[in-house]
Amino acid sequence: MMLRSGLQIDSRNAQTQHENTTPSVKQRSPVLESMVSNEKRSISEPSMQQLSQKVRVISQESSWWELFGVDWTIILFWEISFFVGVWLLSFNSRLYFAVGMLLMGLNYGMIKTKGSHLAAHNALCHSKRWGKVWKHLFLEFQGTFSVDAACDIHIKVHHPYTNVIGLGDSSTWRVPFLPCYIYMFIAPLVLPLLTPVVGLGYLVQERRWRRLSQCSLLAFLGLASQTLLVMAAAKLSAVKAVLVLLLSRCVMEIPYLHINIFQHIGLPMYDKNNKPPRLHLMANGALNLTRTWLLDLNFGHSLINCHTEHHLFPQLSDNMCLKIKPAVQEYLQRYGLPYHEKDYTERLHYFVKNYKDLMVKMPPITEFVGIQ
């Protein structure tokens, strides 16, 4: 009995000594739990860095044709359509004349949206020098707008502060004193006249006199060259040729206005002091329109069915936005983030029905309370 009890005491002492000398899980738990919790948090929470890495891999594996070639082919197609349209004006036929004006209008629709938009974001090539050339060509020479206004308003404000009240909330598109149907279907026809006024007016407001003279010269040369082509083809006077140009530029102005309001207005708006992180801001504040072949081809994927992808990765071309779309959609939905997508006609009915709340009243502010 004495021997057994002694052995039991020794074994207990040895076990106690072993427990005291061996690091316990509890002693290491603060560090380990911190590491594990950080790892779990990085896995369970969406990250802009993580999504960017996925998109970077897709971009690096893409060919020049996918990066830029597809979009340049579409741009060249619409550029050629302008000259075909001018050529059709030379025929003594009202039908040919109407088709010619339609093609010229579709060309301007591409210039004002797809061409100018991609050029402003430097999404047409890798070269910064050539990027500047495309900006002045599409925005000023052909689009009669201002590179400075496009970059300062769209690139530096709208994109970083999407749906932030007073900054990138698309409030510049609101004209509260206009009735619904006038605003939605008639007022856009004035945009060809307002576009150069807004572009040059911005330079006057900012007192950029040198840029004002440069932009005015390029816009005048672009408009004059197109006027001369119409005069030569259709045997029209200068005044009538300018009227033909302005009327042709109205062709895509109604859907142009619509897409600018459909994709942000009516979605959550934030105060600048309480806006969410970039990934959440873009996921909540941008909306894709379902694919429509004419709008996709003329305006570009980044403005139609890949607008969320464009706001997340604005440096990518239209074709690349379309290519990364499945990866972005899967990532956002996997982490429970919104991925807004609506049909054009559905959005149109929604705005007509709720015009006063959306386009007249100030939008309510959504408070971001962080990730729960």
Task: Reconstruct the topology from this structure.
Layout: H1 2-21, H2 25-44, H3 48-60, H4 64-88, H5 94-120, H6 128-142, H7 147-158, H8 180-185, H9 191-205, H10 209-234, H11 238-248, H12 253-262, H13 278-285, E1 287-289, H14 293-298, H15 307-312, H16 318-334, E2 340-342, H17 344-353, H18 355-360
Parallel strand pairs: 1-2
Helix pairs in contact: 3-16, 4-5, 5-6, 5-11, 6-10, 7-9, 9-10, 10-11
Can you give a write-up of this model?
A two-stranded parallel sheet has the order 1-2. It is globular and about 65 Å long. 33% of the residues are buried. The chain is an all-alpha fold and 372 residues long. The protein has one domain. Helix content is 68%, strand content 2%. The protein has 18 helices and 2 strands. The N terminus and C terminus are likely disordered.
